[in-house]
Amino acid sequence: MALTGIEIYKKLPKTNCGKCGVPTCLAFAMNLAAGKAELSSCPDVSEEVKRELAEASAPPIRPLTIGTGEQSLKIGGETVMFRHEKTFVNPPGLALLIKDSMGEEEIEEKISRFNQLQYERVGLLLRPDLIAIKEESKEPQKFAEVVKKVKEKSKNGIILMSNNSDILAAGLQVCKDDKPLIYAANKENLDNLANLAKENSCPLAVRGETIEELVELTTKLSEKGLKDLVLDSGARTLRQVLEDQTIIRRAALLKKFRALGFPTIAFPCEMTNNFMEEATVASVLIAKYAGIIVLSDLMGESLFPLLLERLNIYTDPQRPMATKEGIYEINNPGEDSPVLVTTNFSLTYFIVSGEIESSRVPAWLLVQEAEGLSVMTAWAADKFVAETIAPFVKKCGIMDKVKHKKLIIPGYAAQISGELEEELSGWEIIIGPREASHIPAFLKARQEGKK
């Protein structure tokens, strides 16, 4: 039975040091009991207490990892129903479905699209995560050959899909070291797949035709010592899958019901034959609350919006989205091109860089770390001032790229121009437009003035 906040508090050091991020040990204990904090946040708790509170401090939805290395996917670990309460933690994986009954050329094309469809945004690489290989041929060797082909051509995680333990075993012989997800244990094959997952130390998906059946299966698997489970409620309509996802999430988070405290998998690819309708279903499941979403194919026009939705939902709402600090080249700048500086608030970066690009004037854009704040907010918080901009300009390497010493600052930061000239000896500080929309005309005018 889960411990209450008071019971947890009695076992804490009661130093009220604040190192955990909240001012008192009591507040930390309450957060721990509610699943809104992790015991590791307290640096002073003893090993004995850690063991005693292991269950109370465990995330209500167990985290697990599919695959190995940089391309591995971590799912689960969520602690809230709604992202504004804290934040969602591990974004759902988007998986491409490949069937072993497909022709070799079709399989090659799908893997190629999977590898090529990736997008850079806000310093992050957005791309799909998993390849699900479904057995339809009933031939272990053919299934293993497709698994081998996928493994050779992609470094991402793999889902092995079959109800036949012998066929899954053939696939595991090829990729067991890559820790694939085995799909799916049901009431007919439970013991065989449980042994297979145990022997190969791989996560196991569980499919029930109802949530009640799912609870029965996960309880049996937990008793066998299997903890890394992924849940499939069997729903194959949007209404039912959304209802099931919500029930599972609420049971795990609000009721602390361990039998459903695992990430989920859903199959828009089995809910419709219309590809765009499939993408629409996937968009719903990104928000509520799938851990893995399996798609029949990947197309740029549908994948990019899904990746962007996932990025937005799984960005901490209490922290601004920030761009990586550094030098950004726009329109192939040279040594005579103008140099502009702004903050690393991602919206500011995209607007400013977009306006520079539309001007067609080659330019260097310096993006300074300002904790993700906009120009005005960062200036007011002393995060975008002469004392922070000058050291950044000196160390970023821009002086190796241009032969002039002219820096254009945002018009909203005009107050710092004098101080910045003192900090950057020999540099001319030019006050740019207050509004980003005026940047193209400003740059073109300066370019014309040089002619």
Tell me what the structure shows.
With 451 residues, the chain is α/β, with parallel strands linked by helices. It folds into 3 domains: 5-57, Electron transport complex subunit B, putative Fe-S cluster (3-methyladenine DNA Glycosylase II, Chain A, domain 3, Orthogonal Bundle), CATH 1.10.15.40; 64-313, Dihydropteroate synthase-like (TIM Barrel); 326-450, Rossmann fold, CATH 3.40.50.11600. Helix content is 40%, strand content 16%. The strands form 4 sheets. It has an 8-stranded parallel beta sheet. A 5-stranded mixed beta sheet has the order 13-15-14-16-17, with helices on both faces. β9 (204-207), α9 and β10 form a beta-alpha-beta unit.
Could you give the topology of this structure?
Blueprint: H1 5-9, H2 25-33, H3 47-52, H4 54-57, E1 64-66, E2 73-75, E3 93-99, H5 104-116, E4 119-121, E5 124-126, E6 130-134, H6 140-153, E7 157-161, H7 165-175, E8 181-185, H8 190-200, E9 204-207, H9 211-223, E10 229-232, H10 238-253, E11 265-266, H11 275-287, E12 292-295, H12 300-313, E13 326-330, E14 339-343, H13 346-359, E15 363-368, H14 375-380, H15 386-396, E16 406-409, H16 417-423, E17 428-431, H17 439-450
Parallel strand pairs: 3-6, 3-12, 6-7, 7-8, 8-9, 9-10, 11-12, 14-15, 14-16, 16-17
Antiparallel strand pairs: 1-2, 4-5, 13-15
By CATH, the architecture of the largest domain is named Alpha-Beta Barrel
Tally of domains? 3
Radius of gyration: 27 Å
> Looking at this structure, what is the CATH superfamily of the largest domain?
Dihydropteroate synthase-like
Q: What proportion of the residues is helical, as a percent range?
A: 25-40%
Number of helices: 17
GO molecular function, one term: 4 iron, 4 sulfur cluster binding
InterPro entries: 4Fe-4S_dom, Ac-CoA_synth_d_su_TIM-brl, ACDS_complex_subunit, AcylCoA_decarb/synth_gsu, Dihydropteroate_synth-like_sf
Organism: bacterium (Candidatus Ratteibacteria) CG15_BIG_FIL_POST_REV_8_21_14_020_41_12
Protein name: Acetyl-CoA decarbonylase/synthase complex subunit gamma
